[in-house]
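#struct-queue
[09:14] JT: dropping the first one here, sequence first, then the structure tokens:
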Amino acid sequence: MVEKLKGDETMQLDVLVIAPHPDDAELGMAGAILKLKAEGLRVGVLDLTDGEPTPFGSPAVRSRETAAATEILGLDWRQNLGLANRRLEATLEARFQLAGVIRRVRPRWLFAPYWVDAHPDHVAATELVEAARFWAKLTKSDLPGEPHHPERIYHYYCVHLRMTPQPAFILDISQEWERKLAAIACYQSQFVTGRDNTTPTFLDRLRDEAAYWGKTIGTAYGEPFTCREPIGMASLRNLI
């Protein structure tokens, strides 16, 4: 069940995925979310905007779709920061709001979009996440809650450029693929409208991409991730 925070309440998440729009977390890393949940970690998603307007969506429709996807993912927490879609900027006010959320949900790791993208909202989202992470640790500030500094920011790929990423690691999501696809399919106003008769469809291409990343690591499906900082390892045991 997704938890709701009230007033000055805090909670402890292991992972907070920050998405510019509802559906970006699902597209970029639903497999990882499902795997993290299966391993017993507490995972939340913060959507920065409602993603509207879109040609076939509305705030009410998008909210219902997000709730359905959230149920499939089994998230512990999900909220929307209420920033402006198509006008997302890494302003001081937005940084204040996001840093406050980070201090309240206190994640160990943050996940943000890859920092190179054609979509201005995605670029602004990552700039905002990195700045808010720094602010969240500040003492002697007017931010709500106690200082908190997530250990790392990892970046998922949900980009609008025709590019081949060079990820730092690829996660095997073979067991999670069908549920990832089901979570994405909840956003029918965006991807399953029946209005697009092109072949292959968007979901076909998404499957092909996941299969490509799986092939690079010898599995059926994969999700790529990167990080601006070196990634430490305690063991080689889980390498594939």
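[09:21] JT: and here's the second one, same format:
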Amino acid sequence: MAGYEDMSVYKKAFRMATMVFQLSKRFPKEEKYSLTDQVRRASRAVSGLYAEGYRKRRYPAHFVLRMTDADGENTETQVAGACGSVRVCHR
């Protein structure tokens, strides 16, 4: 059986994290330690959670929990990324 690195969802999440890192370099300087850090951590967490869930897939509850967490981090990435792209974020 292939590892988590071969899963298309993992590959996409990893590529997304790389793209988010590059795009977040354009965020306003005043967001360096808040929004930029937040969106980078959230985007990296998605692939990490997929990997963890894959390794624990024999435990259905743990697998579902990690996939749910990955979905949450993905949503956080989208929201934080939108705030950075329009340079306005209402906290």
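[09:30] RK: nice, looked through the second one.
[09:31] RK: Residues 31-86 form one domain.
[09:31] JT: good to know. Residues 31 and 37 are 8 Å apart (CA to CA).
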